[in-house]
Amino acid sequence: MAIASQATTASSDSTPVPVAPQVPHTIEKHGDVRQDPYFWMSKRDSKEVLEYLAQENSFYEKTMKPYEALKKQIYTEIR
């Protein structure tokens, strides 16, 4: 199953925000039925999950890049 994430645009720039796709999945346990559209993410080593997490990590790095100097300054202050 290939899972392609949807993307919206961050308001501050044109970096696409990764949006986890919802894949219908029904769980039946102890007479209880529930829907979990993010069940596919429980397969931590799957190609789809790893690709999605790489998209999230990339988005984080691009979004936080302008704050790198501030991050270093704060880390220096709290040491």
What's this model, at a glance?
The chain is an alpha+beta fold and 79 residues long. It has helices at residues 47-64, 68-78; strands spanning 6-9, 16-19, 26-29, 32-35.
Task: Explain the overall architecture.
- The protein is built from 2 helices and 4 strands, in the order ββββαα.
- The mean pLDDT is about 90.
- It is elongated, with a radius of gyration of 18 Å.
- The longest helix has 18 residues.
- A two-stranded antiparallel ribbon has the order 1-2.
- The protein has about 80 residues and is α+β, with helices and mostly antiparallel strands.
List the helices and strands and how they pair.
Layout: E1 6-9, E2 16-19, E3 26-29, E4 32-35, H1 47-64, H2 68-78
Antiparallel strand pairs: 1-2, 3-4
